[in-house]
Amino acid sequence: MSKIEINNVYKIFGNNPKSVLPMVKDGANKDEVLEKTGHTVGLDNVSLKN
After folding, report:
1. Where exactly are the structural domains of the chain?
2. Are 41 and 12 in contact (CB under 8 A)?
3. What count of other Cβ atoms lies within 10 Å of the Cβ of residue 42?
4. I need a labelling partner for 49 at 20 to 30 A (CA). Which of 3, 6, 10, 40 fits?
5. In this structure, are residues 50 and 3 in contact, taking their beta carbons and an 8 Å threshold?
6. Which pTM does this prediction carry?
């Protein structure tokens, strides 16, 4: 059993990150997101166990 577990974390920087989340979840990469929306993807579906 893990003491710490973090699953499926996303962090998107910009004025309206919630609007960009579906695009990221559909597979758009960092460069595509930045070019089309001006937002920066910091974390994309990150999971950690310890």
Report:
1. 5-49
2. yes
3. 13
4. 40
5. yes
6. 0.83
